[in-house]
Amino acid sequence: MSHKRTKGERVGNIQFGYRLCADGKHVEPDPSQQAVLDEIRRLRQSGHTLRGIAAALNHRGHRTRRRSAWRLEHVARITKQVATGRRTFFRSVVKSLQAGVVQVAAR
Q: Is 50 exposed, middle or buried (0-12, 13-18, 19+ CB in 10 A)?
């Protein structure tokens, strides 16, 4: 599975902030979801609680991938993934793809 992940291919569920490419095999950053992740990061660094972050996202009109309102649990799951490094690893794969280090199949 790790060999697929290093190639930028889909392995399991797609993390929030990314979407499946047109080829149905690789993942790419989703700009609107990346903006929400940046907002979560900014709010957390400024001292907001997880519940406060969810309320702020809802107030600004952001929705989850399934178009539901943000809840504490959704924000907690995302911040936990960031803290454990899962997103850091995934971002490094995406940066490698963008830099052309890893070959991606044509769409």
A: buried
Instruction: Provide the domain count of the chain.
Output: 1
Determine, yes or no, domain membership for 44.
Answer: yes
- What residues pair up with 9 in beta bridges, in sequence order? 26
CATH number at residue 70: 3.90.1750
Rounded Cα–Cα distance for residues 11 and 22 (Å): 16
Put residue 9 in one of left, alpha, beta given phi > 0 → left and psi -120 to 50 → alpha: beta
Listed residue (29, 31, 1, 36) closest to 14, CA to CA: 29
Q: pTM (2 decimals)?
A: 0.69
Mean pLDDT by 10 residues, the chain (107 residues): 74 86 88 94 94 97 94 93 61 56 42
